[in-house]
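Quick one before lunch.
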Amino acid sequence: MIRFHLNGQWLEESADPSMTVLRYLRTRQTLCAAKEGCASGDCGACCVIMVDQDEQGALHYKAINSCIALLASLDGKGLITVEGLSHDDQLHPVQQAIVDCHASQCGFCTPGIVASLAALYHSKEGKAANDDEILVALSGNLCRCTGYRPILDAARTMHQYPPPPESAPITQLKQLLKQTQWSTPARSDDSAENRKHRLFLPETEHQLQALLADYPDACLWAGGTDLGLTITQSMETADPLICLHRVRNLYRITDDGNTVQFGAMVTYSQAEPWLNACFPAFGRILPRIGSRQIRNLGTLGGNVANGSPIGDTLPVFLALDAQVRLVSAGGTRELAIETFFTGYRQTALRPGEYLQTIIVPKLSTEQWFTVYKVSKRREDDISTVLMALRLDIDDSIIQNARIACGGMAATPLRARRTEAALTGQPLMLASFEQAATRIPRDFTPMDDVRATAAYRLRVAANLVIRAGLEITGTSP
Ligand SMILES: Cc1cc2nc3c(=O)[nH]c(=O)nc-3n(C[C@H](O)[C@H](O)[C@H](O)COP(=O)(O)OP(=O)(O)OC[C@H]3O[C@@H](n4cnc5c(N)ncnc54)[C@H](O)[C@@H]3O)c2cc1C
Ligand code: FES
Ligand code: FES
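Model of the flavin-adenine dinucleotide complex:
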């Protein structure tokens, strides 16, 4: 069984591995405000607010795409839909602002937009949000008929309305969530074995290892932003499925002075302040990965373990010379991330093993690091090419270069010949222009729906030159 808080009441449900949050809301609870538009995390019509509490007791309000979120992943958390926002005939400030600013026409997108803005409103504790914050909050919400200006007007004015009353579900959550969360005693889903599809919710790494020893080929569910699509698009249900949400250790971020270590379940949103502080160029491309809603669920570990050649963090970790820690009941091993990707969407993970930690060396003062993402849209779009470059510079000479690309081969790959051409060269634009000519010898990309091979090669070469322009401060 799973236990969660929905719009003011605790519920217990069986942990069904094929039940998305959206399907549950619409079919089991007849809460039909959240809509199904794309069923793939792209449009935001299904947005709801997931509320969880960290170990310090602070609440985090996150807009999520309920169409690809697994119901079981709500265990121990709070969920607020727009039906639960108004209280005692008083609209929530976001709802009232939407009404007053005429920010809805057909209304199909409106519940999702209200949910995204309400998550922002509560994250800001009712204070005014700036335009950047508003645009990021709405980055996963499409509206086809209102036009965005009135929606932005509503977002800019929502803080001016009276806050929700004390008795409203969303303000009561703090007290209600205290009753469970991470203090819940360990328990296993006994009924899982009796059902057609099995789902397990381990609470410790030890339990996870034991489960994987019994079911070495089990599917691991992290944020579900890749896996959710197997339910909604391919109509597949993994069996058995192990949901990692309650394994607290996997959410840890630690800094030992030389490295930053990200637990596999760290979401993009959770990693954001760390990336901005330690790897600012990485932090700068975060808003280009999916939308806020996707970044609230999607994890670094899921991106790496998925092993996609267009996964955005993979080339970044490659250029940063990261290591991955893989764990099973049999022990722990650490690999250079470079050896982790063994083929198209294939990794070095063995049956029974899981990715526990991504270990990223911090940048020294002699290292210059940048990341470029090229995609057709700025937000919520998959990369055509992503390039990450780390250069070690001493006395205006490039001592070492690590350049990694996504979208250029079956796996994320280093540009070895381009790196060699840069190494030992003076820090001048000409060195980068010369090195860029090696790109076609490093990669043999494919034509696909996103771009032709010729385009990818041209873009990658141009990105090397762009790095040269930036690091030397030369105007193009
Ligand atoms: C609308 C949309 C936009 C997106 N935009 C981008 C984008 O711009 N850039 C990008 O790179 N990706 C993007 N993605 C893909 C996805 O969000 C990322 O790959 C995300 O990081 C996956 O993480 P997750 O936690 O959701 O993984 P899940 O879907 O839960 O899992 C992905 C895979 O990793 C495995 N796995 C997960 N955790 C572990 C673990 N600890 N050990 C072993 N195996 C594990 C799972 O079994 C599964 O095979 C997008 C997806 C959507 C739906
Ligand atoms: S229905 Fe489009 S994002 Fe969920
Ligand atoms: S009001 Fe119609 S889609 Fe937004």
